[in-house]
Structure formats: C-alpha cells, structure tokens
Amino acid sequence: MSDAPASSPSPPIAAETRMVRAVFPGDTNHYHTLFGGSAMAWMDQAAFICATRWCRTKVVTVHTGEIDFQQPVPEGTIVELVARVVQTGTSSMQVRTEMFIEPMDQYERILACTGTFTLVALGADDAPAQVPALRASDSPEGHAVADEPPTTGARR
Amino acid sequence: MSDAPASSPSPPIAAETRMVRAVFPGDTNHYHTLFGGSAMAWMDQAAFICATRWCRTKVVTVHTGEIDFQQPVPEGTIVELVARVVQTGTSSMQVRTEMFIEPMDQYERILACTGTFTLVALGADDAPAQVPALRASDSPEGHAVADEPPTTGARR
Amino acid sequence: MSDAPASSPSPPIAAETRMVRAVFPGDTNHYHTLFGGSAMAWMDQAAFICATRWCRTKVVTVHTGEIDFQQPVPEGTIVELVARVVQTGTSSMQVRTEMFIEPMDQYERILACTGTFTLVALGADDAPAQVPALRASDSPEGHAVADEPPTTGARR
Amino acid sequence: MSDAPASSPSPPIAAETRMVRAVFPGDTNHYHTLFGGSAMAWMDQAAFICATRWCRTKVVTVHTGEIDFQQPVPEGTIVELVARVVQTGTSSMQVRTEMFIEPMDQYERILACTGTFTLVALGADDAPAQVPALRASDSPEGHAVADEPPTTGARR
Amino acid sequence: MSDAPASSPSPPIAAETRMVRAVFPGDTNHYHTLFGGSAMAWMDQAAFICATRWCRTKVVTVHTGEIDFQQPVPEGTIVELVARVVQTGTSSMQVRTEMFIEPMDQYERILACTGTFTLVALGADDAPAQVPALRASDSPEGHAVADEPPTTGARR
Amino acid sequence: MSDAPASSPSPPIAAETRMVRAVFPGDTNHYHTLFGGSAMAWMDQAAFICATRWCRTKVVTVHTGEIDFQQPVPEGTIVELVARVVQTGTSSMQVRTEMFIEPMDQYERILACTGTFTLVALGADDAPAQVPALRASDSPEGHAVADEPPTTGARR
After folding, report:
1. Which of A94, B52, C58, F117 could be bridged to A87 by S-S, CB 3.0 to 4.6 A?
2. Mind listing the pLDDT tens digit for each residue in B5-39?
C-alpha cells in the first residue's frame, strides 16, 4: 500500500464541498423536473471532489448507499449539494452528500435527499493508498479536521 | 387513487428493457473510465423506461437501493443495461437494472453492477395510480407477464 | 488484410442490438420534437455497436443509405432502436436500424423510420479486417448467426 | 395550404448557411475521431437553418439522401458545413450540405462528405406552406436568389 | 417598479455562492485543457445563482466586464467558483466571480481568473424590480449582509 | 520565438468565420432564453476558430473584453456569430465576434452583442509564435488579408 503525500499542510478546504446547480431544461425529463439520474450524478460528483480533496490522490467510487427521493425538483430550482467526509478507513472514505433545494423565489431551503458514497484511494499502480484519518472526536456534522498525513513513504 | 388504462392488451415488451451504450470520451472522468454518476444515470433511465412500459402512466423514482461498483468501465467499452420489473405493490414497482460490460474486442460479458429502483405510478393530479400486478408464479428472472389491468375506473 | 480473432465462440449477442431512449427536453428542437439529427445519431450509434459486436474489432461507418422520416417524435416518447446485420462482405457489414416509437401512455408501437448503414472492419494499422460471414440461409429478419471466424492469422 | 409571409424583402442571407465547428473530445468516439452520428447531426442542423431562412416558417426534415463518409475526422480538426437550397417544390426544399475539414495546422481544405436533405415547410395547423421558388436560371452552385414571396393570403 | 418579497428573513446564504466542478474530457478542447468558453459559462452560472439568491426574483445578465485568463486549466483539475455580490444599485447587482484551480494531487490553490457580472432584477411583466441593498459598511470582500427587504408593495 | 509555417499561400478563409446556431431547449435557462454563459461560449468558440485559421498554430484565449447583452435570445431563434481578426501584434490576435439574432419567422436581423477576444499563438514547447500581420491598409470591417507569412525559420 502506498502512502499519501509526505509533506502537506492540513487541508482547510477538506471540511465541506459545496456545489450549486440551477435546474435548466437540459437537465429535466419530459415532466420538467430534474431527472433522477441527473440528481444521482451530481451527488456522486460532489462526493468525488470531496474525497479527492481529502486524500489528494486518485479515488474511485465503490459503493453507494440507499437514497430516498422525497420530492420532485422542478425546472427553475436552485440545487445545492453539500458533501462531507463522515468516516474513514485505512484507504476508504465515506462521504455523505446532502441535496438541498431552494425554489428560486423563496428564501426557504429544503433537504431533498441524502446519499452516502464509499470511495477508495488509489496510489501507485492503482494499489490502495492510505488516507488521512478523520479524528473520532470531531462531530461528523461539524468541522472535520484531517490528521496530519503520514510522513513516511515515497509519493507515487 | 386512479386506475391504469381500462382496456389494454398484455404488454409483450414489458418483460425486459435493454439499453446499450458505448463509452465515449464525453462520458468519462479524467481517468478515462466511465464516471460513476453517468453509470447511475444510465441505470436509472433504463429503470424509468421499464416501469413506464409496465404501467403506461407517469412514473417517478422514489428510492434507489445500494449499488456496488466492482470494476471500472474504460473508454471503448460497450455497456448493456437490462431492466426488469421484479416486484409490484399497489402503485409501486421495483425494477432491477443490471449493467453488463463487454470489452469491444472480446466476446466475454461481465456483470459490472446491479441496482434496484423503486418507482411509483402517478395518475390524475399526480395521485398514486394502480399498476398491473406481476404474477407471483413468474420467476422474476424469467419472462414476467403482467396481469390484465383493472377494467374499472376512468382513465385520467 | 488481417483476420478476426482466431478462437471465439459464436456470439449469441450478435443477433440484435436494442437501444431504448426517452425523448427529454435536452434532445428536442424548439418544436419540442426529437431533432432529426439526434435520431440519425442514435441510429448510427446502434449500428456501430451492432457491427462491433459482430466482428469484435474496430469499425467505421463508410456509408448511410436513404432515410425517410415519416413522423415527428414528440417529447415524452419512448424510442427503441433495433439494429441487425443484414449482409456481410469480406470486410464490410450492412446493418439495418429500425426506430420504433411508443407514446408513453399507449401500448401501440410504430415503426418511425429505417436506415441502412455500411461499416467496415479495421484491423492492424487500420487495414481492412475479415468479418464473420452472415449465413445466407438465415433470414435477415430472424436470428442471424455468424459463421465460425477463421482460425488462421494472428490477431492484431 | 397556407402561404409564406405576404410582405418580405428578398433574403440576402438565404444563399448559403455556414457553420463552423471544432472537433473537441466531447464530440468523438473512443478512436478520437468525430463520431459519424455527430457529423450527421451537424449536417442536418445546417440544412434545417438554411431551409428556415429560405421560407421563414416552420420546417421539418422528411428525407435524407445517401451519404458517403470518405475520411475520418480526427480530434483537433476544424469542420465547416456549408448548406444551400438546390431545388424547391411547392412546399418542399432540397438542401445540399457539404462538410469540409481543415486540419488545424494546414491551409488545405478537403471536402469530407455531402448530404442532401429534403425539408417541408409547415404553416398554420402544420399544413404544408408554399415556399419561395428557387429561380431555374440560377446555378444551384452559385448565388441562388428567391423569387418574391406570394403577396396573397394571410400569414398564419 | 415592483418590490422584492414583503416579508423575508435575512438570507444567510446570500453571502457567497460556491460551485465546484471537475474538469473532465467532455469539458476540454483538443489540447485537453478547459475550453475558455466553458470557464466563462461556469462563471456566469455562479453569478446568476448568486444574484438570484440575493433578490429572489428573475434576473438577467446585462454586462460582463473584462476577464484575464492567466493560466490553462488542464484535465483532472478541480475548479471552484466563488461568487459574491459586491455592489448594488436600485435594481442592479454587480457580482464578482473568482475561479480557483486546485491540481488534484496538491494542496495549493491558485486564483486563475476573476470576472465581474452585472445582473438586473425583473419583476412583474419583466419590469425592473428593486433589490435588497448591500450595506455600504460591509467590506465587499467579507460577509455581505442584505438590508431587510422593503415591506411595502405586493409581490408579483 | 518560433515562426509561422515557412511556405503557405494567403488564407482566403481567414477573412471571416461564420457560425450559425439554432437555440434549442438544451441551450436555454428556465426562462427559455439562451443562457448568457452559452452565448459567451459560442462567441469564444467562433473567435478560437477564426484565430486558428489566421495563424495555423495552437492558440489560447488570454483576455476577453467587456460584453453588453442588450436583449434576450428566446428559444426558436437562429443565431449567427461572425468573427474577424481586427488587430494583430507580434504573437497576438484581437478578434471581434458579433452575435446576430434572426427570429425564425422574420427577415430582419439584429446585432445582439459584440465581444473582443485576445488570443496568443503558441509554437514549439508552447513558446509564443509569430502570426501573419493584418495589413494596416485593410479596413478591419472589410476583407482583411494576411501578409505573406515569414519564410525563415523551421516550422515547429
């Protein structure tokens, strides 16, 4: 197993990854609501970027958990995806992505759905790589801070 | 709750929905493999079409089950998604979508992943609509045949 | 001229290639019907995959025959493209793609148009490659079965 | 049958419709050449715009003629599509689209393929509409000039 | 001129709009760097969403200022767009969008370019609408807080 | 600094680059008008092709000037982008792109907006390359003709 980068400062941007999108006609089904597959793709992309920022090496999605879609997202809605690392293994990261919807003409904000994505970090020759650990004392819902990455081992 | 169409023959095309796709550069991440979110979107689209053909009314995805992604799908691969109704409720349908990959220069075919999607049929005013029942005696893996749809009730 | 793979079983998936698509707003012109160019692109993609499965080497489209577009395909329609090899030459394949439309709320199915595509197989250095022959006794409309591929010659 | 607009000057832009495109990775197949279906879609779009400019009413493509694809169009090529009305009927227009390719680092320009598209003009209630006639004395390869549109009849 | 919503809490999400994107092959030119036009489109989309969240009515972009593109953004880069309202007029908002790039395997973060977008709020019948004022005492670079929206006037 | 090609005829196609597009639902925001970012992307693409044809080497956009968007461009409009080189430096080119809109059912043509793009030519190792000079005697609004390219120096 290869290691994460030997010398790297704590990543202040690893706490939360935010991705807004506007639902335009090109993203909808013929009912003019956001196509379910598009929502899943946006959630996965947010998780992918979040995990990449966390471990700073190649990552791949190996598992997605169950997702409930409680409401349709009509054309003309602003969608915000917020992704956070909620758990880490030796080379895996569990990322939770929440999808909020904001009708364009209202101030209220609604949690539309949540998905959990498991990603694995890959180093040299696509062998699993070690990832910075999420400190157990951090509330997964708060500001997660990564441990200092290991200093031993050559970077791939 | 509104009913499915009053007079309709058994739908011979409701057994299986097949959707081939070729993985071109426009579908890949920067590792030149099929982006996970694209795979999810294709699986959901196959399920959506399968469920629509089954009940012939508006459908929405309300839940996706867990999905394991066992292997990367490189650029230049043919992908085939096969979706089948495996269970029905009063107004809900459970659709299983399997994603097979065929490297373009080989005859072997590999099951890359499976997803289960729950869709609900909606009729007039988006109220839940009754769907043709999957006969319990049918093997979900074989040729599912829909019951005759109910004859009572006006179509929306 | 290079040969097709030396050892390969008969390809059971070479008979028919099926590709369903749903017509969403992103695929339409401003009349909200499927843009003609999108229909042509989908038909060519189905032919491309069908021919690739047949000969299992690189293929290129060299010719498309005439196509009549008898009816508009409105948003909200399910489209199914069915492609079959109908004739083979030494290194060429003629593929017929039929495009059926199914209005989402009806069980009837209509043949919207047909196109014939000629593709050539390319092997090492993009030289023409030999393709499995379509047996003359097979009805082109039925289950075409490829001859056993030649056993001589190195695979590229 | 409904008429074309009653009062309209000769359309100087009806002679030729030019559409350049650059072939980027998003347009290619996995051989990194322009996907045949994309070429067809671009040619049809150029024809569609050309015909619309000619008759200034809704048009639909009803027929495409044979197309030979003589050469692959690699990533990094500039493509120019030139469309001209070459023949008119009462309500139909035949448009020829030529596709030229210019390798980005060369001054030479090659005609890659030609397609002929037949489009019909539709007026009120989608009934066929009369189109300006292409004058027989004009060389179809030169500057075609439309006859003055008919002055009788109300515009839809 | 129509007013903004009569009763609305201060919008905590109006301070900053963040939009991450990953540069995949589908977004690049044939040099495999982010196509300039894609960068501009992403910056405008971030500004559009930021302005919409600010005034909660329809907005249109009327002007973009000069943009310097100091560096290419290669495939495999994470891009983050951060948009803030920096100035308000009666019905106009000036939004500054910064585009940061993070090479995927590094912790450093670089400001690639900045753009300024002027958007106008439209209310009933597309007449200009009043927008919440940015308080002059706020540093435009810090946490901008909107004034309480006017309480008079019916919402369109 | 590397030179432009040693032997090359005057490029007759360098005067004007024309790019028509039709505004379909896939290009619009949820107000069904052309999304501002799409307009910018199209203008940049026209400038990119124009500059590439001028100097026949790799080009990159380094600066865009101010752009006023005077009117919305609704779905169903034909858009034509016309790009011309208006000024040249040693290795830079200034390209003006005008965007005209033609409502599909009218003969009138309106200049919707203008943008100025500065592009730099790059040769071997991405070092700045010399570009053909725009002759000062040419009206930038008319038929610009490039000077003969320098004959000294090896082509990259």
Report:
1. A94
2. 333 334 434 568 999 998 888 788 878 888 888 89
pLDDT tens digit string along A106-156?
Answer: 777 899 899 999 999 999 888 999 999 998 654 444 443 444 333 333 322
Please report the number of interchain residue pairs, chain A to chain E, with beta-carbon separation below 8 angstroms. 60
The nearest alpha carbon in chain F to E70 belongs to: F62
Q: Give the integer Cα–Cα distance in Å for C81 and C95.
A: 12
ipTM entry: 0.76
- Residue B117's Cβ-side half-sphere holds a number of Cα atoms within 13 Å equal to 31
Place of tokens 């008429």: D3
Q: Name, of A52-56, A96-100, B3-7, B54-58, the range with top average pLDDT.
A: A96-100
Amino acid at E76: G
pTM, two decimals, is 0.80
Any A CB within 8 A of B26 CB: no
Q: F67 with F56: CB under 8 angstroms?
A: no
Q: For chain D, what percent of residues have pLDDT higher than 70?
A: 76
Cβ pair B54, B15 in contact under 8 A:
no
- Give the nearest chain A residue to C74 (CA atoms): A30
Pairwise CA distance, residues E19 & E78, whole Å? 11
F145 touching D (Cβ < 8 Å):
no
Chain B residues with CB-CB distance to C49 below 8 A? 20, 22, 78
Task: Provide CB contacts within 8 A for F139, sequence distance 6+.
Answer: none
Low-confidence ranges of chain D (pLDDT < 70): 1-15, 136-156
- Within 8 A of C11 by CB-CB distance, chain B residues are 107
Token match 């597959």: residue?
A: A37
Which chains border A (3 or more CB–CB pairs < 8 Å)? B, C, E, F
Whether C4 shows a pLDDT value over 80: the answer reads no
Interface residue of B52, B67, B73 to substitute, partner A, most A CBs within 10 Å: B67
Give, in degrees to the nearest 5, the angle at Cα E119 between E117 and E121.
165
> What is the phi/psi pair of residue C16, to 5°?
-140, 140
